[in-house]
From TrEMBL:
<dbReference type="GO" id="GO:0030288">
    <property type="term" value="C:outer membrane-bounded periplasmic space"/>
</dbReference>
<keyword id="KW-1003">Cell membrane</keyword>
<keyword id="KW-0997">Cell inner membrane</keyword>
<dbReference type="GO" id="GO:0043165">
    <property type="term" value="P:Gram-negative-bacterium-type cell outer membrane assembly"/>
</dbReference>
<comment type="function">
    <text>Involved in the assembly of lipopolysaccharide (LPS). Required for the translocation of LPS from the inner membrane to the outer membrane. Facilitates the transfer of LPS from the inner membrane to the periplasmic protein LptA. Could be a docking site for LptA.</text>
</comment>
<keyword id="KW-1133">Transmembrane helix</keyword>
<dbReference type="InterPro" id="IPR010664">
    <property type="entry name" value="LipoPS_assembly_LptC-rel"/>
</dbReference>
<dbReference type="GO" id="GO:0017089">
    <property type="term" value="F:glycolipid transfer activity"/>
</dbReference>
<protein>
    <recommendedName>
        <fullName>Lipopolysaccharide export system protein LptC</fullName>
    </recommendedName>
</protein>
<dbReference type="InterPro" id="IPR026265">
    <property type="entry name" value="LptC"/>
</dbReference>
<dbReference type="InterPro" id="IPR052363">
    <property type="entry name" value="LPS_export_LptC"/>
</dbReference>
<keyword id="KW-0812">Transmembrane</keyword>
<comment type="similarity">
    <text>Belongs to the LptC family.</text>
</comment>
<dbReference type="Pfam" id="PF06835">
    <property type="entry name" value="LptC"/>
</dbReference>
<keyword id="KW-0472">Membrane</keyword>
<dbReference type="GO" id="GO:0015221">
    <property type="term" value="F:lipopolysaccharide transmembrane transporter activity"/>
</dbReference>
<comment type="subunit">
    <text>Component of the lipopolysaccharide transport and assembly complex. Interacts with LptA and the LptBFG transporter complex.</text>
</comment>
Length: 186
């Protein structure tokens, strides 16, 4: 056997092995984690109006970006601003990030979360926290995180908050501290 025949057989064996290896590798699909991160759709610079069961406006949402998860149909929102109608004027609740459940009955807000009542209707009220759950069908917000609640002449801090946005009833759950700041008489 000549050296050319030996080299030819070696190259043939190498070609068969590499072809078989390539054939086995082609059946592998993309990693599941990469597919799970894909979105059904993305909205940019949008305003969304959600209606309640009675057909009245339940809330209004504005944000620079929203992504709907393909797996569980939840929504991930960047810098959401929720406008929640109430008898005494709408509430404006904003955060750095938001997540909304697939059926829309729960929104979780994280980051710099703040809520502001309409100053034209009654005393202006503001709350600030790092995490908040919004239940739009019940007009409730709640958190277990530290909260600062401010109204004219009073500032309260505590851990945990439950608030009915329609009736403007608030309840700080623990470690409550209150500071009164009387207005100046003239």
């Amino acid at each position: 056997m000549s050296w050319r025949t030996g080299l030819g057989l070696a190259l043939l064996v190498a070609a068969i092995v590499s072809g078989w290896s390539a054939w086995r590798m082609r059946d592998r699909s993309a990693p599941a984690a990469a597919q799970a991160q894909r979105s059904d759709y993305v909205l940019r610079d949008f305003e969304l109006v959600a209606l309640g069961k009675d057909g009245a406006e339940s809330l209004r949402l504005r944000a620079p970006q929203l992504q709907r998860s393909r797996d569980d149909e939840s929504l991930d929102i960047d810098a959401p601003v929720f406008l929640i109608p109430a008898a005494q004027g709408p509430w404006r609740v904003r955060a750095d990030r938001g997540w909304v459940s697939p059926d829309g009955d729960l929104a979780r807000l994280e980051g710099d979360v703040s809520g502001h009542s309409d100053p034209a209707e009654g005393p202006p009220t503001t709350f600030r926290t790092t995490r908040l759950e919004l239940l739009p069908d019940q007009d409730l917000v709640r958190t277990g995180a530290p909260v600062t609640l401010t109204r004219p002449g009073i500032m309260q801090t505590g851990t945990g908050l439950e608030a009915n946005l329609k009736t403007r009833q608030y309840r700080l759950l623990s470690q409550v501290r209150t500071r009164y700041e009387p207005s100046v008489r003239r």
